[in-house]
Amino acid sequence: MAMHLTADEEALLDSDNPAVRKAMELLVRLGDIYGADEMVEIASAQASGISYKSIGDPGMEFLEGFAEEGAEVRVQTFANPAGMDIDRWEEMGVSPEFAKKQRRILQALREMGVTLSFTCTPYLAGNLPRRNQHIAWAESSAVSFANSVIGARTNREGGPSALAAAITGRTPKYGLHLPENRTATHRIHVDPSLDTQADFAALGSWTGSIVEDEVPYFTGVEDATTDDLKALGAAMAATGAVALYFVEDITTDETPPIDAETLAFESGDLESEYADLTDTEDTDLVVFGCPHSSVEEIERIADRLEGESIQGDMWVCTSRSNKTWSDRQGYTDTIEAAGGTVLSDTCNVVAPIEEMGYESTATDSAKAATYLPGFGNQRVKFDDKLSLLEEVTE
Ligand code: F3S
């Protein structure tokens, strides 16, 4: 059955503006495919697929053409990380050709009114939805955080559908926009204590590969910081396609599912996850900040590196706004005096690191460890921050 459209939505479908018309047509098609009855208005959007490395010339030309046709966002729309730090790309080792194309993408997004935030943690950088608010976000780790920790409602949008939602201010009401789909399918009891952010990432990596796109409910987790939860969700969204999870007494007042399949995460699973995510001990780049680092994470790294000297290269990736606070606090100076680099706007997965001569990366992110072999041609070492910092300062 075709979706019911309001008079305003019918008008968007008949708009004189070709970009608006195309955006609405795409959303109607999506809604029909997923059996949505109607559209829902959204409070914000988040556009992904804006690194030149990810979309190449065809994607760049599509965005430029769309902007030229009059595409303009109607709701606050943040952009996911780009392929380079917009200011420090030369220092990173990005080629001028790549930088030129990335700037063309930036210009197209600017013309559409997209906030040039270039971060995967919009919720830490000025785009914070509220509980039960409908949004259309595309970055999978941010989708997971928004649904699970904040309680907002978004599906895992693709780059085009998030942009279409931004331009029309709407998205089809299906999937996680509907309360009946926001219930747990698996109950996972976590036996070992999770002592580091990397432990949470390892739990996420294990869980995502088992539950795939379903909804886990964790019990046995005693405490978790915001950074732990962002690492957990990012990992589950990478090894699986988890867009919503619950942690008893931490993320939600939801009661544990009664009939759901119950699984146990044991100490041995935690250990083997570290081993499974690692295929080298020798690395030429250490990267923190996947998802983008909070100021607290940067502070911890700076505290550990005070007066130290790093062997090899180290990147700390964060949002532009968190970089500003880190500059003011002196954290950036401390990290860079030790030999590291604090980068904004980008990350080691969407930057062209394989073209910069890097062959192996150390990370405390299970998401980065999952994507880097295929997307960056890297061998990977996965470990927690302090252990990796210990190694690079030995
Ligand atoms: Fe963000 Fe890049 Fe990781 S977009 S979640 S830092 S792969």
TrEMBL record:
<dbReference type="GO" id="GO:0008299">
    <property type="term" value="P:isoprenoid biosynthetic process"/>
</dbReference>
<comment type="function">
    <text>Component of a hydro-lyase that catalyzes the dehydration of mevalonate 5-phosphate (MVA5P) to form trans-anhydromevalonate 5-phosphate (tAHMP). Involved in the archaeal mevalonate (MVA) pathway, which provides fundamental precursors for isoprenoid biosynthesis, such as isopentenyl diphosphate (IPP) and dimethylallyl diphosphate (DMAPP).</text>
</comment>
<comment type="pathway">
    <text>Isoprenoid biosynthesis; isopentenyl diphosphate biosynthesis via mevalonate pathway.</text>
</comment>
<comment type="similarity">
    <text>Belongs to the AcnX type II large subunit family.</text>
</comment>
<protein>
    <recommendedName>
        <fullName>Phosphomevalonate dehydratase large subunit</fullName>
        <ecNumber>4.2.1.182</ecNumber>
    </recommendedName>
</protein>
<dbReference type="GO" id="GO:0016829">
    <property type="term" value="F:lyase activity"/>
</dbReference>
<feature type="domain" description="Phosphomevalonate dehydratase large subunit-like">
    <location>
        <begin position="3"/>
        <end position="384"/>
    </location>
</feature>
<comment type="subunit">
    <text>Heterodimer composed of a large subunit (PMDh-L) and a small subunit (PMDh-S).</text>
</comment>
<keyword id="KW-0414">Isoprene biosynthesis</keyword>
<keyword id="KW-0408">Iron</keyword>
<dbReference type="Pfam" id="PF04412">
    <property type="entry name" value="AcnX"/>
</dbReference>
<dbReference type="InterPro" id="IPR007506">
    <property type="entry name" value="PMDh-L-like_dom"/>
</dbReference>
<keyword id="KW-0456">Lyase</keyword>
